[in-house]
Amino acid sequence: MTTSHPEELNRLRDTVDALRKTVDQRLAEDPVREAAFEKLYGELKSYKDGFLREAERPLLLDLLLLFDSMVWFHQSLVKEEMSSDVVADSFQFLLDELLEVLYRREVVPMEPATEFDPSVHRAVQVQAAPTPEDDNKVASVVKRGFVREDKTMRPEEVVVYKWKGGGKS
Question: How many CB atoms lie within 10 A of CB 54?
């Protein structure tokens, strides 16, 4: 009896392994399971798309208001003779409105800086410094930089003074 017992145990183990393989194979090929995963992925995509649409909505509404202001400005230019002062004031209004849209998204212009800082500035041009003290100072701003939550969104493009040395004594 002791010799048949290990043989029966091995046969039983083989049978259980074969059953386990069959069940695993059936689960892997189960159309209901596949359909459930497809449905789950579809729902997740729908939630993600809905979430993104809802997150974009306030920004898009702000941009539509800005669009309306730009259409008004364009119509005013076409319909009427406006002095350059009125055109400048109207255009400044559009810039202020755009800045307001950015402020609502916590995007603000960088604070003006006198010293060039490569972490927030991008030098687009170099200009000879009139004095050694002006070396590495910002000569002018070409494009405003913007930050959001203390992180640079767009570096400020600047002209930088560089002292070449020498000169006449």
Answer: 9
Six-digit token pair at 132?
Answer: 């050694």
Contact 161, 151 (CB under 8 A): no
Per CATH, is 108-164 categorized as 2.30.22.10? yes
- Structure pTM? 0.62
Decide: residue 69, CB within 10 A, 0-12 exposed, 13-18 middle, 19+ buried: middle
Instruction: Give residue 166's pLDDT band: very low, low, confident or very high (50, 70, 90).
Output: low
Rounded-to-integer distance, Cα 39 and Cα 163, Å: 67
Integer CA distances (angstroms), 161 to 39, 126, 130, in order: 62, 6, 8
| Residue 28 half-sphere exposure toward CB, CA atoms < 13 A | 6
Q: Which ranges of 29-149 does DSSP label H, i.e. alpha helix?
A: 31-79, 84-104
Mean pLDDT of the chain: 87
Contact partners, residue 137, CB within 8 Å, separation at least 6: 114, 115, 116, 129, 160, 161
Give the span between the Cα atoms of 163 and 152, in whole angstroms.
28
Domain boundaries of the chain, sorted by first residue: 108-164
